């Protein structure tokens, strides 16, 4: 990927207020329900890598599961901790958060289920980092546990357009309301354009967010970028296998649109070897 696509503000991509308001690339309700169906209603001990502001783990805790959320972003976890503080004590006691890069988190407890929701693994741009996170996850689940993750649908036409030089096609997600910030509550409008390097497989999304007052005036505009390493099913399964996982189940979102996209459920090949080490 051309170094000119790397920006100094990239680490600040995720904004808790925008994330909660589902501005821009909103989370798929269908995918979330598939996770819940696979996890089931029997109380489990669950760890989520890349938990963000807790959209998934808070629902799991409410369903009776004991959950640990891991995230690199201090602002996201601060936002999540405020939510946890407002919950009833019997739910609060089932939630723990850890601030750490997923590939560097030291997890001492073992869990029935590990999850990494919403294209999480594509945020690791180097192959060794993807492999390392798989190994960390393998070490923190019980012998009969599982790891559930997903890859999103990629629009082939948008990827083709993203390979073109400038000027670029600009896309919009429209407007979302109720974005709560320190300066008040705003509406938010989001536009984006993309660069895609086929050699590296890295997609760079350039995004602008307008925070809009009730009278229609723009309070501020924020520019953000996000890079992701687009993985194929074969690559994902290969990395998993190198870390000691077998693919137990694959639930596609839409094979006609993208045969790689869907929910992946992995189990350990030799579960007891990981817990002997």
Brief sketch in words of this structure:
This protein is an alpha/beta fold and 277 residues long. Helix content is 27%, strand content 37%. It has helices spanning 16-20, 29-39, 57-62, 74-85, 89-92, 127-139, 156-162, 233-242, 271-276, and strands at 45-49, 66-71, 95-99, 111-116, 141-151, 171-181, 184-197, 202-212, 218-229, 245-254, 258-268.
What does this structure look like?
The chain has nine helices and eleven strands. It has 277 residues and is α/β, with parallel strands linked by helices. The strands form two sheets. Strands 3-2-1-4-5-11-10 form a seven-stranded mixed beta sheet, sandwiched between helices. A four-stranded antiparallel beta sheet has the order 6-7-8-9. The radius of gyration is 19 Å and the shape is globular.
The value of Rg in angstroms is: 19 Å
| Secondary-structure element pattern, one letter each | HHEHEHHEEHEHEEEEHEEH
Anisotropy-based shape: globular
Strand residue content: 35-45%
Low-confidence stretches: none
What average pLDDT do the residues reach?
87
Largest sheet: 7 strands, mixed
The count of helical stretches stands at 9
Number of strands: 11
Q: Kindly name the structural category.
A: alpha/beta
Distance between the termini: 37 Å
